[in-house]
Automatic annotation (TrEMBL):
Transmembrane segments: none annotated. The keyword Kinase applies. GO terms for cellular component: chloroplast. Residues 51-409 form the Protein kinase domain. The lineage of its organism: Eukaryota, Viridiplantae, Streptophyta, Embryophyta, Tracheophyta. One of its GO terms (molecular function) is protein kinase activity. InterPro entries: Kinase-like_dom_sf (IPR011009), Prot_kinase_dom (IPR000719). Keywords: Kinase, Transferase. It comes from Perilla frutescens var. hirtella. This is Protein kinase superfamily protein.
Length: 414
């Protein structure tokens, strides 16, 4: 889960400077690499003189949330395979790696003038070995996903254009700038707008027609947001990659104007924790970034490469379910009524993933009523999909393609 200072508005006055005298003896190795036995066809720009860097536009860190399975017995904190799916407790901690975002552009070559967003990982002296591992893993994931020239233009995944390393060891990854916003930023803006429609006495001041039109547009926008996100996730799974860091701050949007929903293109970013699930990789030892995933897989009874692959895909679907719940509620709530962590705890700890029980709870709270109505469309199609995506048994969760084809995501009721 990501904590981010979303960059919602940028000044038109951009001061650019040139990065010079860089050391390219990087563990990242930006040279053409072999991915899946074939030479990566993605042409990455590795010459620092090809870039200009503008101002800082945001920064964020990582929050580690671990959900433990099993019944609690005294002080026993081990997993109990006989009761997988019963959520007992959560550990919440802030990661040590802090990432900075800069705007910029390409100044040389065929892509000259292309706007980019630089994602800067700190050097080992600041971020430790973990920062280098995350940067290298993100590079590897994008190189793998962009290795096939036929479908490199999967429009629902952020495109890596190149990068470099500075003398201080910072890893700079340059992504095509396809959006200034995130799903988290959109939800915040939508929630703030909901608050403006209440006076001090809590009475709604907007007329019924305006309210109905606003809700309709919001539902359509959110459905498009969800559809694009799942399409990107399906692409990753089809190309043997897990996301493993999916959340509202990991989805980049090119617009947050609800009237422009038809032009909305959500794109997945933040692949630092992505996991390679080719069978050849699942037979080997796990790396540091995927240890937690395979530990949870073992606790759930997934031991063979086939079972581990299925668990990893189902784990991504579970996080997508949490994102689904987030965009189904937060944009329809007034500011401060609900946040992502509270929503997660409500689903996991309070209602033990029983979404119908959660529906009854939300139905009794007028502040959450619009979210309930949204998921109620199509005789409760939204609740049905949410329950399937967050099924306690990972084997019963749908794959991304099935989610994409579900009548709720298809927008059959809008």
């Amino acid at each position: 889960m990501l904590l981010t200072a979303d960059y919602l508005s940028l000044s038109s006055n951009v001061c650019l400077f040139r990065i010079r005298k860089l050391n390219f003896n990087s563990g990242l190795n930006f040279r053409r690499r072999r991915v899946g036995g074939q030479c990566c066809k993605a042409s990455l720009i590795t010459n620092s003189d090809s870039f200009e860097v503008g101002r800082l536009i945001g920064s964020y860190g990582f929050m580690n949330i671990t959900s433990y399975s099993g019944m609690q017995s005294g002080t026993d904190m081990e997993y109990m395979p006989g009761d997988i799916g019963r959520l007992r407790a959560q550990d919440v901690g802030e990661g040590s790696v802090k990432i900075r975002l800069y705007e910029g552009r390409i100044t040389q070559g065929p892509l000259r003038g292309t706007p980019v967003v630089f994602k800067v990982y700190p050097g080992q002296q600041v971020g430790g070995l973990e920062a280098d591992l995350m940067a290298a893993n993100e590079l590897s994931a994008h190189a793998s996903l962009q290795s096939n020239s036929k479908d490199i233009a999967c429009k629902n995944i952020q495109v890596l254009l190149g990068g470099f390393e500075t003398k201080t060891g910072e890893q700079w990854l340059a992504f095509r700038n396809d959006g200034k916003y995130t799903a988290a930023g959109y939800a915040q803006v939508a929630s703030e707008k909901m608050s403006k429609y209440s006076d001090l006495g809590g009475q709604k001041i907007w007329n019924p027609f305006e309210k109905n039109e606003t809700i309709k547009r919001r539902r359509y926008f959110i459905t498009n947001l969800l559809r694009g996100t799942i399409r990107g996730l399906a692409y990753m799974h089809d190309h043997d990659r897990l996301h493993q860091s999916l959340g509202p701050a990991s989805v980049v949007l090119n617009t947050i104007v609800e009237k422009d929903a038809a032009y909305l293109i959500p794109r997945l970013r933040d692949l630092a924790f992505s996991v390679d699930i080719r069978f050849s990789e699942l037979n080997g030892n796990s790396n540091t970034l995927s240890e937690g995933l395979w530990r949870r897989a073992s606790a759930a009874g997934a031991f063979t490469p086939m079972e581990k692959r299925a668990f990893g895909i189902a784990d991504d679907i579970y996080e997508a379910g949490l994102l689904f719940a987030y965009v189904a509620f937060i944009p329809f709530c007034e500011e401060g009524v609900m946040d992502s962590l509270s929503l997660r705890r409500l689903l996991e700890n309070t209602f033990k993933l029983d979404v119908q029980a959660m529906r009854e709870y939300c139905l009794a709270d007028d502040r959450l009523l619009e979210g309930v109505k949204f998921l109620d469309l199509g005789s409760g199609a939204g609740w049905e999909l949410l329950q399937a995506m967050m099924n306690r048994d990972f084997r019963q969760r749908p794959i991304a393609e099935a989610v994409l084809n579900h009548r709720f995501v298809a927008g059959a009721f809008l």
